Amino acid sequence: MKEKILKALSSIKNPATGASFEDEKRWKEVLIEGEKTTIVYARDGISPQEKRVIESFIVELLKDLVPQENLTLRSVSANSSDVFKAVESPDKIEKLAPAQIKTGHAAPAAKKNVPGVKHVIAIGSGKGGVGKSTFTVNLAASLSAMGLKIGIIDADIYGPSVPMLMGKRFEKPLANSNRKIVPIESHGIKFMSFGLFVDEKDPVIWRGPMLGGVLNQFLFDAEWDGLDYLLIDLPPGTGDIQLSMVQNCHVDGAIVISTPQDVALLDATKGLEMFRKLNLPIIGMVENMSSFICSNCHHEHFLFGEGGVEKAIDALKVPFLGKIPLELELRQSADAGSPYMANPSYEGRPVARSYQSIAGKIEQYFNPQDPSKPGLFSRLFGR
Ligand SMILES: Nc1ncnc2c1ncn2[C@@H]1O[C@H](COP(=O)(O)OP(=O)(O)OP(=O)(O)O)[C@@H](O)[C@H]1O
Ligand SMILES: [Mg+2]
Predict the structure, then answer these.
(1) How many domains does the chain have?
(2) Dihedral in degrees, nearest 10, Cα atoms 139, 143, 149, 150
(3) What is the DSSP letter of 265?
(4) Domain match, 50 and 125 both
(5) Separation in Å, CA 7 to CA 12, 109, 216, 231, 333
(6) 362/122 Cα distance (integer angstroms)
């Protein structure tokens, strides 16, 4: 039995190093007393957030061997006293979940590719409110205008905003005959969001371990067939969702959004570090709300300081993808549920040009073309 348990746990990895717990000799004890099993592991260097996700993986991996109510996880650390954790009963978790989709612990295992998707891009920020969701939706619309097939996963459980930004707040996804969830489609872009499953007025009471399970269903149980890019709008910061996503799914690259203020940049640096720690290639950084062009005086005002992100780029050692000015119509389009970049009447404005240039850089990153040869990139941007 002990061997079976250890074998079942062989896929558990230390997120900081990528090495298995087995290789790092973290399994200290598997104690079987009658029906009860206690597993002791070394938790040195593992953050409380990572610990929570790892423990939910352990429970899931052992569900056929040891019922959850008979399992106790104990972690030991060279620097602190033992931490006891009785695993909560599954009934309690089910009762907390208001959504109709199946919640549960994140499925572990090796990283999987998202079926039907060529490239998965995570979009993150160290700080909330910097325009990440607005960016995701408008980048999707810009790539879509280039003739590419785009999908979005809104992984922000606490403030899902993609249904609103896409003008589909009250849609409910259906399942097809293959029992796959059919994403909602708007402006030719497919999307899935936690917001489609919860009432906007309900307080969100899902908890960390459930999120990974739901996100897994968005990634692997949705019909994404034939996408060139799947963009994932992450919640702000560096938490469970980011970790569980990168552990489960092959992500091709990350984009970090920041505004030019020092404080936003400081947070963005933390976001970059997290992606680096998770071994995720960083496609680049985008400066949002870089300046404001006044429609009366036509001067460009740098409300948050000039070019903060661009200046910090050398020290951060990441590519700079571009800056997006503040524009009233961008905010109004967001509120109206119709992406700015899906509206051809904004063509040629600074915001539209920035988005097109960033979309071109992303396509160039994944499908480099010889710029001297006419191709999609040159046809679109006349270069
Ligand atoms: N370049 C811009 N010009 C004008 N308004 C913008 C711009 N970028 C974002 N906004 C507005 O700023 C607000 C915050 O943007 P958004 O919701 O996209 O941020 P977020 O980073 O996703 O926030 P959260 O952390 O809450 O998820 C929204 O009202 C949006 O319309
Ligand atoms: Mg958002």
Answers:
(1) 2
(2) -10
(3) H
(4) no
(5) 10, 12, 23, 35, 53
(6) 12
Ligand 1, atom 30, residue with closest C-alpha? 331
- How crowded is the C-beta side of 15, counted as CA atoms within 13 Å? 27
We report the CATH number of the domain holding residue 308 as: 3.40.50.300
- Domain span at residue 31 reads 2-85
324 lines ligand 1 (CB under 6 A): yes
Q: Which residue has the tokens 């001297």?
A: 372
Section 86-112 average pLDDT: 44
pLDDT digits (tens, 9 = 90+) for 106-117: 444 567 899 999
Residue 341, domain member (yes or no):
yes
- Domain shared by 6 and 80, yes or no: yes
Classify residue 278: in a domain, yes or no. Answer: yes
Q: What is the pLDDT of residues 55-67, one digit of tens each?
A: 877 888 898 899 8
Candidate from 142, 300, 331 with most ligand 1 atoms within 8 A of CB, to mutate? 331
* 220 shares its domain with 268: yes
Q: Whose CA is nearest to atom 25 of ligand 1?
A: 128
- The protein residue whose alpha carbon is closest to atom 1 in ligand 1 is 326
Same domain, 168 and 233: yes
